[in-house]
Amino acid sequence: MGFSKKQHLQENIDALRIAFKLEKENRQATVGERLLMMRYSGFGGLKFVLNPVENEIDINNWRKTEHDLFPITQELHQVLKENATDEKQYKRYVDSMRSSVLTAFYTPPQVIDVVSSALRDSGLKIDKFLEPSAGIGSFIQSFSENQQASVTAYEKDLLTGKILKQLYPQSNIRISGFEEIPEKEQNSYDVIASNIPFGDTSVFDLSYSRSRNPVKEQAARSIHNYFFLKGNDMLREGGLQVFITSQGILNSLKNEPIRRALMENNNLVSAIRLPNNLFTDYAGTEVGSDLIILQKNTAKQGLSETEELFCTSNRTEQDTPNNALFQNSTRIVHTDWKLDTDPYGQPALIYIHKDSVAGIANDLKEMLSDDFGRHLNLSLYRGEQNDEPLIQIPTQEIPSPVVEREIIQPEPQVFTRTLVQESSQELKQLSIFDLFENADEPVAVLTTPKKATPTKKQATRRTRMPVGRQPDLFSSAMEQPYRLPVSDGNKTFNGKQQETIGDLFSQQSGNGQADKPAIPLAVPAVIPETAPFSSELQSFHRNDCLVVDNGWVGYLQDVDTSDGTAVFHPLQLPVTQKARAEAYIQVRDIYQQLYTKEAQHQTEHKEERETLNRLYDAFVKRYGNLNSAGNIKLIKTDSAGKEMPYLERVVGGVVRKADIFSHPVSFSTITIATDNPEEALAASLNKYGSVDLGYMSEISGMTDDALKEALHGRIYYNPLEKEYEISERWIAGNVVEKAQEVCTYIENNPDDIEAKASLTVLEEARPRRIEFEELDFNLGERWIPTGIYARFASHLFDADVLIHYSESSDDFSVKCHQGNMHIWEKYAVKAESRTFDGIALLKHALVNTTPDITKKVMIGDQEVKVRDMEAIQMANTKIDEIRTAFTEWLHAQNDEFKTRLTDQYNDTFNCFVRPNYDGTHQDFPGLDRKALGIEDLYASQKDTVWMIKLNNGAICDHEVGAGKTLVMCTAAQEMKRLGLAHKPMIIGLKSNVHEIAQAYRTAYPHAKILFPGKEDFTPQKRLRIFGDIKNNEWDCVILTHDQFGMIPQSPEIQKEILELELDSVERNLDALKLQGKEVTRGMLAGVIKRKENLEVKLKTLEHDIENRKDDVVDFKMMGIDHLFVDESHQFKNLMFNTRHTRVAGLGNVDGSLKAMNLLFAIRTIQERINADMGATFLSGTTISNSLTELYLLFKYLRPRAMEKQGIHSFDAWAAIYARKTTDYEFSVANNIVAKERFRYFIKVPELAQFYSEITDYRTAKDIGIDRPNKNEVLYNIPPTPDQEAFIKKLMEFAKTGNAELLDRPKLSASEEKAKMLIATDYARKMSLDMRMVGGRYADHPDNKASHCAANIAKYYNQYNAQKGTQFVFSDLGTYKPGEWNVYSEIKRKLVEDHGIPAHEVRFIQEAKNDKQRKELIKGMNEGKIRVLFGSTSMLGTGVNAQKRAVAVHHLDTPWRPSDLAQRDGRAVRKGNEIAKFFANNKVDVIIYAVEKSLDSYKFNLLYNKQLFIDQLKTNNLGKRTIDEGSMDEKSGMNFSEYVAILSGNTDLLDKAKIEKQIAGLESEKQAFNRSKFSAKYKLQDCKEILESAQSRLNRMSLDWDNLKQRIQKHSGGTIANPVQLDGLLPNADVKQIGAKLNQLADKSRTGGQYEEIGSLYGFTLLVKTEVSEKEGVDIRVNRFFIQGEGNIKYTFNNGIMAKDPETASMNFLRALEKLPAYIKKEQENIAEFQKDMPVLQELVNGTWSKESRLSELKTELAAVERKIQLSIEPVKQSEEPAKQAEKKQENQKVSESIIRTKGVHLPRGVL
After folding, report:
1. DSSP state for residue 1528 in the 8-state scheme
2. Is 1190 helix (H, G, I), strand (E, B) or coil?
């Protein structure tokens, strides 16, 4: 039986109808209904149900092969809509289906029955059964049959869950995820069985994701592993776990820890591999699966041999993943196998069973019967294994979120005192009982507990009850069970025994003696029962925090901050303990209230501060400092007291109060007095956010007019807001919009002189208008009104087209309710699966994507789907035509239209002004210039600081050595001094953050800086630091990037941002749905996985928000309000969403956690200041590789500004500024391969304007830094004989893919795809050193290492007197102790061949810590170390060792321009004294390039790319479009260019490039010709159809004219019906005519011929007998026609004669009455054809537009080929050997001369 999609869907619809009906009628299903519902099989394999079905026209988005499924899918959606309460619920149903498409592959019932019957036959009785992923309950049905089992089942899918509930009304069905199973059900089920889900989807279960057990933590990240471990938790001892799961569980190497954890607690009963065709009939899919049966046995001693194999992953002989258990195929149910690929395209062994499901079931039964007989332990299952109950020792891990509190009831015993020394660990939450562990005394307890359960061999009795959600809350620090003493003086109250009260907090006295135990006291009153907390719940209250209520001290439980309720648990304490606890609670409450009020209201609360001081002083006087040992114990019992120890600071051994005791720490309270108008202005901006002349006058003592005069040109009147604004703010931003508003104001207020002056400066500042002719337009730019796109599309297709843009989904919808040849032919692509018409391609053109078109091909005897590259290329060509047509159409519009569009563009994008920031007036009070050794800051530094102060942030794009560190320190201190920021933070690289801190301390010796060292940031001390940041006022906090990453971010901000990302992912899902059949399963799975993982993150955050503040201070609470991010390019990997998933070089869309963390922090600050910025990014390489990185910079710093331009996503940004190219290349197998890149950027000046508005870009030259010049030298080296030979092999490998040429195993399928990347990598290694390729190669005197060593030695000797130093860079072959590497090899040559002392040559990798690193740098600066090797990442940043540097050697060329700049910056920077005084103030930078390698090519690429980036940053681009080039580290490079470069012939490279262009054009031409031939045949058909239609029209018109002339009318005006029938008199009446016609209808037998029976108005009446067969019987029908001179037969009622005589007689007249309608229809058809004919004629007559370009290229190619031919002619015999020898000598001299590379102008010189 094959898989019928239609049948499965119909059965699903019927089942859903019944389920919805039963739900409405609130009744149980009948037997018939139940049977129908059991046929439900989910939507696995039915991906088409997600295609659009709203309108009939949506069928165009479907595959042709699935068109018959369109109506039934419409029916499905109709059923869902009818039964959904609203649109939201309908969407949930559709989401449910979407997940089901990927996961619902139900197991054939026969297989389940085999497993359940095998268990029953073994004598197993199931009392309690769990199904964690139930589907429609096949496992429930099978396992509970003939068993009175209590069944619990989970099903996450909404629709399936509804059916499951109706099928099993007696069972406990839960429509939710398995992760929601209550903890109390652990260790309770007999059998757990299911076909579990599979995938890298995370699960929201904090007891796993936050577990200390790494295996559980790993399981939370992939749903299949989670189901195994969580299922095992639910099993009782001896219970069985029966799971069918994907082969990945057993095959994956990553899952080994999971498998081992399972084997340690379970016996392996059975593991059987099932064939891939198991699900084929039932779910239409082929997937590999395993049946795994485990029996829980936590007491087992070790693993059997089979269980060890179960844990081990290996690979088969065919190099496919496998499990050691299946090494021989005896445990695999199959009849045949083959090597193929799995559903993800990876190589796999595919097992098939030829006898389908029945055969599989039989074989499985035999194997299970054998396994159960040998491995199933029935005694263990029945609990008969041990006489004594097993005492399990719990592990250290305490599951979160539920934690158990132990209530300990003491029994009379002798108490042995145990001393526990408290380590300086992290402040840990203790229970109130942990206070007893050092107390030699009786104890106070909670309210009398319920009866405890005694446990064997235990002195204390314990009751476990769940409390709160705090891990380790009540766990004792003691390792031994603690035995409590009880005095004889116990009293009883209400018949219950009550323990004596003792002193909880007794200390050892000074003489080392313990204080005397307290005297037993009479208990003052009966302890009250737990009751609702009667006082007001505070924001800091949470579970287990100490409180006072109605005079009792106790703790809270069940805290619900949303409705302000909690349960109060009283504690019975002696008077002294109670007094201490009450005093502590008062201090804590007033501290929390004071901080919260001041943070919220930003005003000082003196009264509360006085109270805090009074209560704190009283507490300290009576009980000692908060941090004394006794008080710390008390604080540890209080979950709300985490921050209390930080209210004290130890300074010089003296305990001091924190700053909060003297003044607010959550905002600034500084008051300012100054006589400097500029400072008065800055202070005003800080305090009021505006220019307040009154305030400025007050603090400066100057009058308003004097201030205005002093600040002339600095402040302007803003008439719109009726206030003054600073020039940098007034003449900034969107000046066009401001000017328009001021003009309107002046029209109404013509006498306002100040407003006119303000308008004048705005108009003068307006950027030069960009005219229409200069503009580049992309189809799909979001700012262009959709009406323009609709007009263009209507013009293009000659039909009415409607276009709508949805901002929320960032998508266009295109509607056209008619079709024509433009849509169906001219702009359409016909693929095997469907036709993409013009409307579909226009939609792709608008969002700049290409359809993913597939076709089916036979590989061996199997049909597989592959990308149809030819159709994709054709579609791309048509999309390009549409996009080009849009530009041409715009240029063809009238001038008024162009002016309007240009105005709109200029007003939206060309309207930003970057003010000229002049910071010369700043005098930086407190800056110790003398200590810094400077006269003053550079003017550039001052300007930058002023820009940061005014804009509340900036991008400092300063070249290395421009003094970024001082900019950070002075800007932070100034912002703090002026109150522009209250608590700034600097974050920097670990390698140089100490230098930043040192510079800050030197610059501002009195500044209050917090700079924790690495040893201060241990997990134990971290909380203390966070508390210090929050509770104290700092001028600046300085952390490393890594330390910053450890600060918890505000869960609310994280939630907000992740919700936006989730919305974006959901929009992508909706967009995928609208694409219908174009969506591959992989695309859908990828987006759904991303959605589900984001949902888990969101749930985790929601949990943290609900249960927050138990942990630590978060970033938001710290009050940080400005971030300085040094080396900000380290955070460029930020998450974003895009449709352009096939475009190379976009980076990882998921981003890094590090970057997300920074985004959360910046959004927290932006939310606080309600504006963009809030951070300053500092880096010499803000754009390190591609202009796409600009988008991420703007996403961090300018989200609001981008929204104003209509940019809500990366795709919207790219639509405006980027232009995508698709290069087509021929692969080795001669297939076309497409490479998409954002290669061109347009409107670059406006992009540069948007960037420069917030950026201060300075080169060293701009600043005038005293640093040496760079003398760049490209040092060419001829290849060695080994390299020559290897280059040939590499070229052959690139052509054939034969890896054995390179002495490596055959390429795997995944390596085959990355072949060019492998080839590129080998070429890089080969050019560095042949020994990098393989150990069989030897050293050579002419290799790169030898040349480099010789040059290093030359510089070493040249600058020996000055102890000149050199840097050597290589990212390949870095230093690894104990193995061969290029670094060590060059060092060997320097020592052995050139006599340089070994200790003077060092590697940066030798420094294992900061101290050693500093030593190396110090050694370089002192000249003790003369040569330092390193990679870009380790030596390229944070190394200030330039003092004696004379040369930099690049053994390889890095991938990014920024990397090269970072490397050079180690020597080419300020402070290089030897270069300045002894080397003509220049540093030689030598780039080593082996000829015929990729070295020079890469260097050229970098050079050009850097040129563009520099031009963009200086906002000085000569052109509006730039090209980024086409080589990247992800895919290597193009095959033909690669081969050409390796051959070393630049002509060959030109040839390769031309051939590539020709190949692409030839392919395009073929596609054009095919569409031309198709149009030609269509045109011929059209002509014939048109002639035929014209002929029909003429003949019909003749008949109609004849009828009009002959027609007769009665006197009443009605038309006469003079029918003449053969055999009837001419004057026969209506009844006779009707009777005769009915007689003819019954009796005529014409044998298929037309037989004449009479006439009407000169028209002939005819009858014809038609014969058809039904069920073996001939059926004859007589049909009647009327025919005129036009020879066309007309009928009425399809020629069937009516029984009523009167109606029958009118049959022929009625047929003639329809003539006008026929004529009209024919005329319309002819008009339509006549309209289409010119379009087809144009296509047929059209010439290919790129023909001339192809001819030019072919001519070019011929010329290049001639040139190559001449260059490779054999050397003539006449050439003398002497000349050849001379030539050879010249070649050796190459290394002594400097060669200029193509396109890069380098100085000539000799090393």
Report:
1. B
2. helix
Helix/strand/coil (H/E/C) assignment for every residue in 1087-1149: HHHHHHHHHHHHHHHHHHHHCCCCCCCCHHHHCCCEEEEECHHHHCCCCCCCCCCCEECCCCC
Residue 1412 pLDDT greater than 50, yes or no: yes
Instruction: Tell me which residue has tokens 């002016």.
Output: 899
CA angle 1087, 1088, 1090 (to 5 degrees): 65
Are the C-beta atoms of residues 511 and 479 closer than 8 Å to each other? Answer: no
List pLDDT tens digits, range 1729-1742: 888 788 778 777 87
Helices 256-265 and 223-234: crossing angle, nearest 10°? 10
Q: Write down the mean pLDDT value for the chain.
A: 78
CA distance 1168 to 1176: 16
Task: Name the pLDDT band for 1548 (thresholds 50, 70, 90).
Answer: low
Amino acid at 928: D
Q: How far apart are CA 37 and CA 1369, in angstroms?
A: 70
Partnered with residue 193 across adjacent β-strands are 242
Say if residues 1386 and 1348 touch (Cβ distance below 8 Å).
yes
Q: Kindly provide the residue ranges of all beta strands, DSSP E only, lying in 1346-1403, ordered along the sequence.
A: 1365-1369, 1401-1403
Q: Which parts of 406-519 fold into alpha helices (H)? A: none
Instruction: Report the alpha-carbon distance of residue 130 to residue 296 in Å, rounded.
Output: 15
Q: In Å, how far are 430, 578, 1046, 1051, 1111 from 642, measured between CA atoms?
A: 11, 20, 18, 19, 8
Angle separating helix axes 964-977 and 939-951, nearest 10 degrees: 40
- Decide the pairing of beta strands 313-315 and 321-323: antiparallel
**For position 1566, what pLDDT does the model report?**
66
Degrees, nearest 5: CA angle 937-940-946 = 85
For a pLDDT cut of 90, what percent of the chain falls above it? 17
Strand partners, 1235: 1223
121: left (phi over 0), alpha (psi -120 to 50) or beta: alpha
For residue 494, give the 3-state DSSP assignment: coil
1727 to each of 801, 1579, 1589, 1722, 1733, how far by Cα in Å?
A: 21, 15, 10, 9, 10
Cα separation values, 749 from 298, 755, 760, 764, 987, Å: 89, 9, 15, 21, 51
* Spatial contact of 832 and 856, defined as CB atoms under 8 Å apart: yes
Give the model's confidence band at 490: pLDDT under 50 very low, under 70 low, under 90 confident, else very high.
very low
Q: Hey, what amino acid is at 404?
A: E
Q: Which residue has the tokens 């940004």?
A: 1213
At 1517, list the tokens. Answer: 């681009």
List of E strands, 36-154: 128-131, 150-154
How many other CB atoms are there within 10 angstroms of residue 298's CB atom? 14
Radius of gyration over every alpha carbon of the chain, rounded to an integer in angstroms: 42
Which has more confidence, 1516 or 1648? 1648
Residues paired with residue 726 on neighbouring β-strands, in sequence order? 715
What pLDDT score was predicted for residue 1215? 82
Q: By three-state DSSP, how is residue 1670 classified?
A: strand
- Beta-strand (E) ranges in 584-670? 648-651, 654-657
Pairwise CA distance, residues 632 & 630, whole Å: 5
Interatomic CA distance for residues 464 and 407, integer angstroms: 7
Asked if the bond preceding 401 is cis, omega within 30° of 0, the reply is: yes
- Distances from the Cα of 1417 to the Cαs of 991, 1131, 1412, 1594, in angstroms? 11, 26, 9, 100
Torsion, Cα 699 705 709 712, to 10 degrees, reads 90
Strand-pairing partners, residue 1730, are: none
Its pTM surpasses 0.85: no
Instruction: Of 484, 315, 470, 346, give the one whose Cα is nearest residue 408.
Output: 484
Residue 169 identity (one-letter amino acid):
P
Place of tokens 């960032």: 810
Q: What is the pLDDT of residue 449?
A: 39
Q: Please, are residues 598 and 605 in contact by the beta-carbon 8 Å criterion?
A: yes
